[in-house]
What we know:
By secondary structure, the protein is of the alpha+beta class. It folds into 3 domains: about 425 residues, no CATH class; about 140 residues, Pyruvate Kinase, Chain: A, domain 1; about 80 residues. Helix content is about 55%, strand content about 10%. The strands form 3 sheets. Strands 6, 7, 8, 9, 10, 11, 12, 13 and 14 form a 9-stranded mixed sheet that branches. The longest helix is centred in the middle third of the chain and has 29 residues. The site of manganese (II) ion has 6 residues, from loops.
Amino acid sequence: MWSEDKIPMRVYIGLIILAYIFSIAIRYIWVHWASGYPQFFWNGELMINTNDGYYWAEGARDILTGHHQPNDLSPIDYPISILTAFLAKILPFKFETIILWMPAFFGSLLVVPVMMIAKTLGNDRVGVIAGFIVGIVWSYYNRTMTGYYDTDMLTIVLPTFALWFLILSFKSQKNRYLLLMALTMLLYEWWYPSARPLEMAFGGVALVYTLIFDRKNIFNYKVLIFIALAATPVSIFIKSILAVAIFIYFHFTKEKSDKFVLPILALSILLFLLMGGIDMILNPIKGYIFREAISDGATDSLKLHYFAIAKTVREAGSIPFEIFADRISGAIPLFIISTAGYILYAIKERLMWLALPMVGLGFIAMQGGLRFTVYAVPICALGFAYIAVWFGDKLAEYISDEKKAKIVKIATPLIALTISLYPNIEHIVTYKVPTVFKKDEVAVLDKLKSIASREDYVLTWWDYGYPIRYYSDVKTLIDGGKHTGMVNFPVSFALTHNQVASANMARLDVEYTEKAFKEKNVSQTEDYLADMMKDYGYKDPALFLAELDNPNFKLPKKSRDVYYYLPYRMLNIFPTVNLFSNLDLTTGKENKNPFFLASRYVVRGKRVYLSRNLFIDQEDATVHFGNNKYPVNTFVISYVGKDGKVHSQISKGDSRGNLYIIYLKSYGQILIMEKPFFDSAYIQMFALGRYDKNLFEPVIITPYAMVYKLKK
Ligand code: MN
């Protein structure tokens, strides 16, 4: 029945290369689309489309230049930064080109272990079909597309290689694959520190597999030794040495060592448990689901209650079945067929049960969030390919003509492949992700780089932290990895309060960030506000914060410059920024949020419509919302002039009014807000260009972003 499945290895390698090239070529679709937008380019190359990528890029840049600043949070020790720096050194391409294409070239490597798993099991046609599917499946594509420069490029590739070596070990009963498996698992753990739960799950299924199917075979217990070793929470370096040592021992003693296999297994399990494996068994998926710790501040007796970041994070939480199925296989029917295919595959080829942990982890996505779906992708692709080949062979049984039967056996899987590719390619064509920043924004940061020194701080919202550090080579207070409610509070406060309080808080936050690093060596989750209150002798946070309104507040000694980065794009998230400091820190209770709206508009006569039931009546200076009518307190027209200054005209309306309207001419946008927002440093300095000359100095003024220097 499987005669068509003996594809010669040389041909098969050719097919692997072809599938690999296919996977990369598909990733050119985005490049082609994005190349139509000059705003997506910087330094003659397309920019990346994932924020976190700028973090790794900063690390790689600093490795290449050979230095970085204490407490600048540059990830110079991370594998992805090291790999990037290495490639930038040996390859004749621009740094920007390397980080743009790395995800495509590394992510597409997934076709190799997937095709080799099927080859190892003797299902060559299955491997070929799966190989052409796996690289471009919806969720896998999203996380490894060109420009998606992040650790995802190898987080699925490495465990799939480990799974291949695991299957190969059982199948071939050769020690050398055990070593490869263990080393791949260690590489995986080095690349992705939350790798261990999956390794343990591999150990679990390998154990059950051995006990059910093949418990008398002493070799299988060797497999367990190597997995237990890989999953033990000790240094990767020590584990690598141990793995090599045990391999050498087994390799050279051959059968003589067989009687020691079980004692060694017992020892390694004991070691695993002693080193903290018990906790990991009790909470095997904790590391995956709760990657970001949520914590209240706690310094000695003082406990402040901050805004929990989880409230604004979208990715966590359960997802509907349709999205789940689309992400794993491209469409609901494909997902069902793939899952059925996997079950069929595992029934016919019991070694496929070893893939269960990856399927399981993918299914966690239904509860744990979208990013887990990718784990199921390789196995579901194999399942789909298997059932397609199986179905073709079943059909062929009804055809007496041998030649025609052979055609059916090859054509059926190919038709299935086409059907499976269709929704996934359709997704890829329509998935138009912009680059993180636009050229005009980067130009501001690039200019800032020549103005600010590497020890200076830039105060802005965490969304812009990584790109700013990469393009301007400065320090930031919060970023894509450092943004708990605790560290966000002072920044949120500085952006949403009056300029005096803002300036005081900015200086305090910067000096206390450095102080905490120098004195306590902490740089991620320190309660800087609590530290300040302690030094200034305050117990009540509200009293301390009120004191910041004092222009003569005694600040710590200035150690460096602080810049405010105020981008246009922050308008859309400004109410969210406000949430982090608009609460009672003693109780954690949130205050009422002031009204804020940023919108485009349509003019009809004297009425300016922002939406169907919200308009501004210019006749009597009121805002109509539904059936209600509110007086406007102040009306402002502002624009960024060719002279590099913000020009604003302010006209007073009804002094009893609560609403403030700003017409941003440069952007064709209207803002409606209540007083607290109108008075905030961000709105005053960015939208109105009104800065306190004692406190701030404009450095770069463009419509896309403005940079002010703190004078205090
Ligand atoms: Mn630095």
